[in-house]
Amino acid sequence: MIILCLPLWTTIKNVMTRKMSISLPDGDCKWTEPTPLSIDSKPYGTLLASYPASGMRTAWQQIEGLTGIEVGDDYAFSGELAGIIKTTYPHYEGIWSHGSTLDQVIMVVRNPRWAIPSFHVVISEMNYAQDWEGVYSFIDSLFAQLAPNANWIKWRDLKFEDEINMWAWHIDYWMEQGSQYWHALDYERIGQKPFHFMNENSRPWPKDQHCIDDIDCFPKALIMYEKLEHYLTGPDELRKIADVLRGKKGMTVLPDESINCIWFQTFVHHMAPNDVDMEGKITDSGNYNFTNAHLETILDKLDMMKNKYSQGKWANVAVAMDLVSSLDEYIEDTKEELAEAYQNPAPTPAPDPYYPQYLIEWYASIGRGNRYGYEKVRNMTGYWPLVKDLFNETEEREILQSFHPAVGYSSGNIITPAFLTCIVSMLPIMSFLT
Fold it and tell me: Same structural domain for residues 72 and 201?
């Protein structure tokens, strides 16, 4: 029997012991509760990165079983050397709170067809919170209930294009060591006015300074969630993680012969609900679907990513080969769902010219709308001088949007192009008057 112990750091600095899961003869094992690393161990740190709701909870639970080390969260990072931290950065739901305390990256991927609706479930459970206090207060109560399907449809129809792009850009960010798809002054990394996301035709994009100064952003391993959670393939995916962690300072990793056992034991003993639990609820509900147009876009994006990472400089790179293998499976799954959708078409609602504006107003009503509101930004003393010219450039667009034809009417009259032209011509006078 092998038992490895390290000092345990607690906030009151009591001296205790930390036990990793125990390897027993003949590949047997015993799962133990994970505990934080010692503050004095100065571990070789690992960052677990994924697009939101891409199986990270399953991944960190398995890693805790494998190592006995408690995995930290970017929203709860204390500033100390925590050993293993999970993040969704650079997605707007993630933050870079760990500075330069980590040394390597493991990336987790999931089929966007399921990652995107699962992400909506999570933010719905957080009551669509988007500041630190709001998000952190819900961390321990996630994966408990589904979002109303009506809200999913509205969020999907409004945010789908952004989210499928960010799913792909998240992979590009880590694979390309910091490809920054957002404007440098867009601190929310959300692409809302007065900012916009980078154009694909403007590649190569700038590099995020974090990948220059803080960490080697290229992943040491790529983990496919769908393989990690399945009993036939899960242990081998966990071995890939073990290979990256084993031998690093402060890391305690079970031997290979015990990994099959600990993979099963973790699913049995880890009490917190995870992605597998939520996945079952989503699929069982029969909701959280995409339109044919959405599925076609997903398929195009998967094909594009496969073509990119299967040739040229990526052709013989192990991590890229694992990514392409994952994409192949996602492509086949999407083709199957799309073929079924073509054979059994869902009812299509009649076009509604008011629908886009309705979605914008709904999104604003739940606090997710304009993250760079004029009054808010103008009161940010150090930030306003850097962006005020961008707001001036969008003044005409904002006037036009406030009278957008999608709204349909103003004082009972249909807005015509001539009326819009009149409004635009009055901008200099309006500016003078104010």
Answer: yes
